[in-house]
Amino acid sequence: MASAPQSYVSQAMIDRKDVWSEPRYSPPVSLSDIRKWAIAVYWPEVPPRIFWDEEYAKTTRWGGIIAPQDFNPFAWPVDRRNVRNAPEAPPASERPLRGMNGGQTDTFGVPMRPGDVIATSSALVGWEEHVGRLGLTLYVYNETRWTNQRGELVKTRRSIGIRY
Description:
- By secondary structure, the protein is an alpha+beta fold.
- The protein has helices spanning 11-16, 31-42, 54-58; strands spanning 24-25, 99-108, 119-132, 135-147, 153-163.
- It has 3 helices and 5 strands.
- Strands 1-3-4-5-2 form a 5-stranded antiparallel beta sheet, with no helix packed on it.
- A hairpin with a 2-residue loop joins strand 3 (119-132) and strand 4.
- The chain is elongated.
- The model has no long low-confidence stretch (mean pLDDT 89).
């Protein structure tokens, strides 16, 4: 019977910790994209007016149209290159691991507005190992940050990957 590994943390993970990816940039957010997103998300109901009625939006604390918090300016990329920043799992021949999604948490900053250009960057920000009923388990934490062209934080997503 093979003994359990002492750690699933690889040198590649150690080397990549807190190394942020080069930013990717969205095309400018358009009023039309915001309206279409809101219509799709709230369908068949009418979306809140802040997302489509310019005259109404001018009377709000935002002073204009804003995007729904779940709006994704990267939803339809022309360039479909692999942009994942998660560390690679050890080769299956060395350590056969199973994995699952441990969830994610989004924290929102300033809303996106028409004309904004959003930058995104990701990093492996940490990990923990614990021994549980499934044996040694690795919890990997990745973070993605979105900022606008003024450097204001739009959204932070913290994701957890679980390997055992």
